[in-house]
Amino acid sequence: MAERNRPGGAVTSAADAAVADLYAAHWTGLVRLAWLLLRDDQLAEEVVQDAFIAVHRRWDSLRSQENAAAYLRRSVVNGARSGLRHRGVEQRYLTREQGEPTAYARRTEASAEERALAGEATHSMITALGRLPQRQREVLTMRYYLELSEAEIADALGISPGSVKAHAHRGLASLRDRMEASS
User: Fold this and answer.
1) What angle do CA 176, 124, 109 make, to 5 degrees?
2) What is the pLDDT of residues 152-165, one digit of tens each?
């Protein structure tokens, strides 16, 4: 592993420098991608941090270090999927627990905080996008927010470019129908 001296006497590896450059170039976009998939600020940042840690840990064993940004995107998408699965497990547990007649702090209506947050998140496009199936939402987010090509999206999601086209077509048709119905 190549090492170099930094000002002040600290020694840094090639992985440190490369990941620092990737971080500077891609952090904001990856956090936004994660947020669009998860709708949770803290979880989005955590998923992106985990992706950068994984890249740094595996830097020397990456097949192509030039494709590290694509590896990061794939890691963020997979981390978001994992976060959504975990959230589903939590929601099912809480729903089951709240349904019990002896449940602690059982509520019958949403709190003022929940109503305020729900009111903030009613932007029509984001809401419509959130109702799409997961794969369509991922494809459209990566296509129109990150402006990735079909090949880059296919690589990030681990699917064929033809599947990317199909998911994009179905997602756009569904969004169009939902937006016309709401107006």
Assistant:
1) 130
2) 999 999 999 999 99
Structure tokens at 77: 């998408």
Distance CA 105, CA 137 (A): 35
Phi first, then psi: what are they for 56, rounded to 5°? -65, -45
How far from 17 is each of 12, 85, 182, CA to CA, in Å? 7, 34, 49
Please tell me whether the overall predicted TM-score, pTM, comes out greater than 0.90 for this model.
no
CATH code of the region 109-183: 1.10.10.10
In three-state secondary structure terms, 107 is coil
pLDDT in tens, 116-132: 666 654 567 788 888 99
- So where are the chain's domains? 1-108, 109-183
CA angle 108–112–117, rounded 5-degree value: 110
Q: Is 39 left (phi over 0), alpha (psi -120 to 50) or beta?
A: left
CATH architecture of the domain covering 1-108:
Orthogonal Bundle (1.10)
SS3 call for 11: strand
Apex CA 94: angle with CA 33 and CA 105, to 5°?
125
